[in-house]
Design brief:
- The complex is a heterodimer of chains A (115) and B (109).
- Chain A is mostly beta strands and 115 residues long.
- Chain A contains no helices and 10 strands.
- In chain A, the strands form 2 sheets. In chain A, strands 2-10-9-4-5-6 form a 6-stranded mixed β-sheet, with no helix packed on it. Chain A has a 4-stranded antiparallel β-sheet with strand order 1-3-8-7, with no helix packed on it.
- Chain B is mostly beta strands.
- Chain B is built from no helices and 11 strands.
- In chain B, the strands form 2 sheets. In chain B, strands 2, 4, 5, 6, 9, 10 and 11 form a 7-stranded mixed β-sheet that branches. In chain B, strands 1-3-8-7 form a 4-stranded antiparallel β-sheet, with no helix packed on it.
- Chain B is globular.
- The chains are: A mainly beta (115), B mainly beta (109).
- Chains A and B meet through strand 5 of A and strand 4, strand 5 and strand 10 of B.
């Protein structure tokens, strides 16, 4: 059974870069035919799709975040990563990694943007 | 950017049936939007119930079904159970970029 686990700092300063990693266990990213996704949920609000990456490296991004987001994959470490630059308080959220098509979601990690 | 709209809230009686819909501001929802449906309970991560309009995962209870209905994506819950009380989100694909719906709070009462 494939499981996902997010990791990274829980606190980021305004204007800095948010970096998260999603480690996949129980299956190989490179053997999957699915895209791997990042999603976030601000406190008390709905879900926002950030973007996705295929094991070969191709990506799709939310147009509203595209200028600040990079999603990459490292098949040797069986993980994929999110970088969001120039963060503000509006980026405070629970960040989830998932394979929306394949099914599994991580438990989520809370990231706060504050000085 | 498209907007994906869902009913804010719906109530269903235990054992009853309710249909949630997912509407696109750009026009009729088709299979090419690859509709997905997710369930989220308070304090928990979401889980995927339906992918590609009507396909279920192994963990999806049989009482949930997905379809296209009247130009929208639809999630039908039959024989509702108390544990089905949750927030439900749909998601549509627009040339690879996904947009989540506004969410529907389903109350089983």
């Amino acid at each position: 059974q494939v499981q996902l686990q997010e990791s990274g700092p829980g606190l980021v300063k305004p204007s800095e870069t948010l970096s998260l990693t999603c480690t996949v266990s129980g299956g190989s990213i490179s053997r999957s035919s699915y895209y791997w996704d990042w999603i976030r949920q601000p406190p008390g609000k709905g879900l926002e799709w950030i973007g996705s990456v295929f094991y070969g490296g191709s990506t799709f991004y939310n147009p509203s975040l595209k200028s600040r987001v990079t999603i990459s994959v490292d098949t040797s470490k069986n993980h994929f990563s999110l970088k969001l630059i120039s963060v503000t308080a509006a980026d405070t959220a629970v960040y989830y990694c998932a394979s929306l098509q394949g099914g599994p979601w991580g438990r989520g990690t809370t990231v706060s943007v504050s000085s | 950017q498209a907007v994906v709209t869902q009913e804010p809230s719906l109530t269903v009686s235990p054992g009853g049936t309710v249909t949630l819909t997912c509407d696109s501001s750009t026009g009729a929802v088709t299979g090419g939007h690859y509709p997905y449906w997710f369930q989220q309970k308070p304090g928990q991560a979401p889980r995927t119930l339906i992918f590609d309009t009507s396909n279920k995962h192994s963990w999806t209870p049989a009482r949930f079904s997905g379809s296209l209905l009247g130009g929208k994506a639809a999630l039908t819950l039959s024989d509702a159970q108390p544990e089905d009380e949750a927030e439900y989100y749909c998601s549509l694909s627009y040339s690879g970029a996904r947009i989540f719906g506004t969410g529907t709070k389903v109350t089983v009462l």
